[in-house]
Amino acid sequence: MVISRTPFRISFFGGGTDYPVWYRQYGGSVLATTINKYCYLTCRYLPPFFEHKIRLVYSKIENCQTIDEIVHPAAREVLRYVNLGRGVEIHHDGDLPARSGMGSSSAFTVGLLHALYALQGRMASKHQLTMESIAIEQEILKETVGSQDQVLAAYGGFNHILFAPTGEIDVRPITITQDRLRDLNSHFMLFYTGIKRTASSVADSYIRDIENKKAQFETMKDLVEESLAVLNGGQDLTRFGELLHQAWQAKRSLSAIVSNPHVDDIYDAAIAAGAKGGKLTGAGGGGFLLLFVPPDLHDRVRERLNALVYVPFRFECSGSQIIFFDQEEDYSALERSRASQPIQAFHELTDESPSPPAPLGR
After folding, report:
1. I need a labelling partner for 50 at 20 to 30 A (CA). Which of 3, 43, 64, 349 fits?
2. H-helix or E-strand spanning residue 277
3. Would residue 154 count as lying in a domain?
4. How many other C-beta atoms are found inside a 10 Å radius of the C-beta of residue 273?
């Protein structure tokens, strides 16, 4: 049995420039971090006692005979890609809801790849997990998704990520003092709007017309450099929040469905209560609202947004990890043995032995 733990992420600046349709022409730049909220995937080879060959447990339960029968798109294609050749059981648990703008889909893909490789006794590098999960989501599943989520899920940490037109990805950890990092973390508040949406549908509303929105994308890319200057130059962190506000205004202009009147009302209420800036995480449309708020005003903002779920969080730096690994009995060998020697195989599988014959009386 294997358990992988893969972090969710928050993107501060540059989101959108990580879509291949953009960075393959102009290059992309993203400032983002992973947080201490995770996707957990438990995987084990399925013993040969069940009628089904594949069992998936997430918000639904799927018992299947073949990979083609699997409804969950990412699970189906990851299993096909890894090609276990064995029955398998997979359980998914997440600290945050799906379709909420926290990179949950890519965390699932990266985490499942990681767990299945470990189940085979293979160690996958962070680069391998990144590139293979990008290929599965973008090329096999044909989803309109960017490339930052897979990078962050695999690598973890607070990073400046550069996307080259050649397709190369450069992950640069942010090197600031721990005190500066803690101070930055203390300014953020995260609220769940309760609105679920599919990121690819929101992104598709502006990615298809990307040439006519070049100015907005350039603005979002430039804000990455300005935010880095704030962090590295020792400036007042309030400026970081103001830049978030600018980035959100630029992103809202990309499409009518990036935001909505309900989200706008929440955002305006937070600003009135003391927030300096913020944004919907991910592609937009709903999910989580990230706010930059001076620590002494947190209580006021929480009171103003008391109808929403508040989610405290910390930055994390581990990326996808195998947190449990236990080699199991090789049921495939025992199953072959059972086919040729049923009684002996039963004894092996149950760890029982035939009772010796009772001694004959004299």
Report:
1. 3
2. strand 277-280
3. yes
4. 18
In a domain, 330, yes or no: no
Please say whether the dihedral angle defined by the alpha carbons of residues 209, 257, 149 and 237, taken in this order, is positive or negative.
positive
The confidence band for 201, taking pLDDT boundaries of 50, 70 and 90, is low
For residue 322, give the H/E element and its range. Answer: strand 321-325
In this prediction the pTM is: 0.88
DSSP state of 263: H
Return d(Cα 169, Cα 29) in angstroms, integer: 10
> pLDDT band at residue 172, thresholds of 50, 70 and 90?
very high
Buried b (16+ CB within 10 A) or exposed e, 149-188: bbbbbbbbbbbbbbbeeeeebebeebeeeeeebeebeebb
344, 337 contact by CB (below 8 A): yes
| Helix-helix angle 104-119:126-134, to 10 degrees | 120
pLDDT given at position 195: 82
In a domain, 341, yes or no: no
Which tokens go with 60?
Answer: 């639904």
Q: In terms of DSSP bridges, do strands 309-310 and 188-192 run parallel, antiparallel, or are they unpaired?
A: antiparallel
User: What's the CA gap between 288 and 197, in Å, rounded?
Assistant: 11
Number of domains present in the structure of the chain: 1
- The CATH number assigned to the domain holding 228 equals 3.30.230.120
Question: 3-class DSSP state for residue 247?
Answer: helix
Give the residue numbers spanning the domain of 98. 2-322
Handedness of CA 157, 267, 252, 202 (dihedral sign): positive
